[in-house]
Amino acid sequence: MDPAPRPNALKSMGHRLSLTKLRRALSGRKKKLQEIQEPDEPNQTTTTKPEAEEEEEEDDDDEDDMNEGNTVIGLLGGGQLGRMLCEAANPLGIDIAILDDHNAPAKQAHNTNRHVVGSFKDPERIKELAARSDYLSVEIEHVDTEVLEDIEKNGVPVVINGETVTHRPPIHPSWRTLRLIQDKYLQKEHFKASGKTIPIAEQIAIESGDATLDSLKQAGKQFGFPFMLKARKGSYDGRGNFKVDSEGDFAEAIKALGTMPLYAEKWAPFVKELAVMVIRTEDSDGKLKNCVAYPAVETIHEDSICTKVFMPPREVSEEICEKARKLATEVISTLWGRGVFAVEMFLLEDGSLMINEVAPRPHNSGHYTIEAVPYMSQYKAQLHAVLDLPVPDKLIPRVKSSIMLNILGGAKPDSHHHLSGLARSTFGDDMDVYLHLYNKESKPSRKIGHITLTGFCSVQELEAKAKPFIDLVDQIRQDRLQATSETLRPTQETNGSAKPAEKAPATENHVETQELSAETDSNDKPLVLVTMGSDSDLPVLKAGLDILKEFNVPYALDITSAHRTPKYMMKVADEAAGKGIKVIIAAAGGAAHLPGMISSETPLPVIGVPVKATHLDGMDSLLSIVQMPRGVPTATVGINNSTNAALLAIRILGAFVPEYQQAMKKYQVDMEEAVIVKGTKLREGGDAAYLAGMKK
Predict the structure, then answer these.
(1) Nearest CA to 428 among 468, 397, 369, 398?
(2) Using the 8-state DSSP alphabet, how is residue 628 labeled?
(3) Percent of the chain scored above 70 by pLDDT?
């Protein structure tokens, strides 16, 4: 009889064996150990089962193993991309364990007891997911790469059949790729230094703090005008970008993006935006096997969001499309890990191509592949690549043309109903229509679904046939923009009494947008309510709103005067907690009764911002808020200091949302480092040089 595997040998197998194989190995080892330890007794009666029963029992064991051990991909993030990945996994018998909120869209499409509830930025929850998974992958690149690196190197402990083993699920794409992609400046520097001919725009890093203005001047001198100012981290879909047309834009650019790490990029005079999805495969040792490109597509962005995708691109030659595919594979070959990648690029006026950015995951520009390349959609390709299953050497669409239209939330929750109804009722021999709804709450500009149209005609002919759909998409956008404009207009005052404009849904932010009405592309409802007694308080609150954007905290805005709209103010305060609000920031000047009155009507923490009015320099506002009677606690910050109000709100959220607590820790470290840099500069250069620099 062969000796049983040594325990230490089994414990070192975690990076090579799936959880299913580990269970079987440990189960077999225990059976063999029992055989060794049980003495043979001469008079012991041994019952031999019929051969058929033994085979049946073995089959049952295998079935149990399959039920509890289908190949499991742990997915960080469970939005619409994860949902469509699950829809592709279900018929393949692949299990997806999702780390996200309990009712995330992806979890609705895949029922398993392996899901983890929590934030995909929480290190402990990520380790819990790793312990339940054979492989790890991501739905969004903005994850904690440090914990992924630790899992790859050190593994996570897993108890199987009473044995503790170290489990190292392969991570695809690699944490190295994710970390690189998270910083757009470093991403492009990597492509430039790769040794391959990958065209990127000229770029320079922008210094932070007091040196930002000088850096912007240097960018203007080096690139000329216009140039692009971009956030290095956290942005997507064109968000986090600011077009600088002249030195006159510097102050506004700093105000919009100055709190984030930035870089400047030379303006690219593009005529179209193209995108190519690429499947990247490599062996278990990390050696590249192949990069296979899907067809090039044309993407249309409006309001910094992709709204339409055309396959093939309109009025673009096959030669350029083929160059785009080859360039995309060159780009992805420089990265690490298996999976599907999106390569976004510009088609310039002279017919050349320039790389814009890469997404290391399925992408909006690849949704069309579900119907246009049904044998290997981008979601099926993600599964095959991560699991190292076969993928085709070339990807040829089964239709001649395809158009993808994003369904974005409109001015009203039901704004998209006419569009989805048209998709459900349109049938024909010359155009197929496929509706995808993500079961997400409709909010202005939020991606809540998409429609794919396919045909065997040219893309121009398909566009003509799809005109009713395109017109509705455009109309929803126009209505949304009109409603946003009306919502942000100042309150009209008549005879000393203020009447709020007809109530529209409270507006929300996105971390990199300049408009207060654009919302985050997450599943979270607003966590912070920011309200003011008058629209004249909004400039004071702008600094605090910038902080909330920097930390990616979804918020709602409102005007609730304690004296002119007291009933409405009380209603807002009373309903806030029921709508998911966790903290309220209230700004008021003069008598400044608003923060205290709201605090008296809500169980939520309220932070008052005293606003400096015409008289008394804001001291009246400060004392009014801070001197609340016992039983009605109202936190108070310095006069006009909405920055601290926002930071305090984030600390309150951080008490129960780990990602905000981690972000706050990083903010404090960055703040400390900035002061140290200033101190070093002062010590080394002296006071005269330092003051001269400040004047500049």
Answers:
(1) 468
(2) P
(3) 83
